[in-house]
Amino acid sequence: MYSAPASFTNLSSHDPRRVIGLFLARLLAYLVRLHAAGEAAVPKDIAAMAHSAEALVSQFIRMRAAEQLKACGFTFAANAMRAPDIPVCSHQPAFGTHRARSEL
């Protein structure tokens, strides 16, 4: 157990799981403090942290999946999982697919 706060530890010596865990713990601490204070709105920097946390976790899952795919011999699929511009599970609706089907 570390006696120093998470913000003072050397993050370069930790694996990605630990760094993401520390980041999520810090974000949770901010959100709990805001909730305890009765705040209804979240500051922009905390909202940006939440967005970054989603991206970090998503990319970590993709990295782990790519490792598994590569170990099984699916190098093309592993490279596709590592590509940041290819959405695997996007929260955005797929615009244009409905119109394209109706034009057929």
Outline:
By secondary structure, the chain is mainly α. It has one domain (6-103). The protein has helices at residues 16-36, 44-71, 75-82, 97-103.
What is the topological layout?
Blueprint (H helix, E strand, L loop, with lengths): L15 H21 L7 H28 L3 H8 L14 H7 L1
Helix pairs in contact: 1-2, 2-3
Can you characterise this structure?
The protein is 62% helix and 0% strand. The chain has 104 residues and is mostly helical. It has one domain (6-103). Helix 1 (16-36) runs antiparallel to helix 2 and helix 2 runs antiparallel to helix 3.
* Count of β-strands: 0
| Unreliable runs | 90-104
Largest sheet, strands/sense/barrel: none
Distance between the termini: 62 Å
Structural Rg: 19 Å
- Helix percent reads 55-70%
Along the chain, the helix and strand elements come as HHHH
Instruction: Name the shape in a single word.
Output: elongated
Strand content: under 5%
What quaternary form is this?
single chain
Q: How many DSSP H or I helices? A: 4
The structural class is mainly alpha
| Total tally of structural domains | 1
Mean pLDDT: 78
List keywords for this structure.
mainly alpha, 62% helix, 104 residues, 4 helices, 0% strand, elongated
